[in-house]
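Example record used in the benchmark description.
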Amino acid sequence: MRLGVVIVEDDPIVAAHVARGVAAHERLAVVGAAASLAEARSLMDRNADLFILDLGLPDGSGIDLIEAIRARGGRQPKVLVLSVLGDEETVLAAVLAGADGYLLKDLDTLDIGQQAADALTGGAPLSPSIAAYVLRHLRRREGREKPEERDPILSPREIELLQLLARGYSNKAAAAEFGISPHTIGDHVKSIYRKLRVTSRGEAMVEAIRSGLLHL
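Model output (structure tokens):
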């Protein structure tokens, strides 16, 4: 059975490109599409596993949709942002609202299907520049706070993996670095999220920095 993807994008050319990338992946299928925030909200009850969404929608911000999805109880879909907006304030707002990944639009080189699959298997794709942007912001913010002193709750291997994820590595790239399968990396990522009691990469970085587990 293929996993369902909802595409939220007001540019029909970009939406069509994303849809082709999703459909080309053997494990994914497009189950809905929206060109506005209002249309996207009407699809929240759709049995979707992933929302791929733009932030600059004609009737509002995609961040509002992320917050609405995360505010719902029960099973929640993953959220992957695909946007031209890469300023610090917007990026951090999306990640801390609960986005599972944040990619800048580069339709010539971006493998939409693989990035979507990574998000669905426990990864959280971040464009390298976005990862660096978020980490710089967190370093400034967390540098003003003394990390909590407590015993590490992650294994040395998990901390090493978290460092790679914080640098923007995908599950596939981290698997190649460690010499193990992407599936095993996905299991490790799920373990990290469970131990830190978080649901996204951004939240994991914040918690790890605050706890002194991740040093920038």
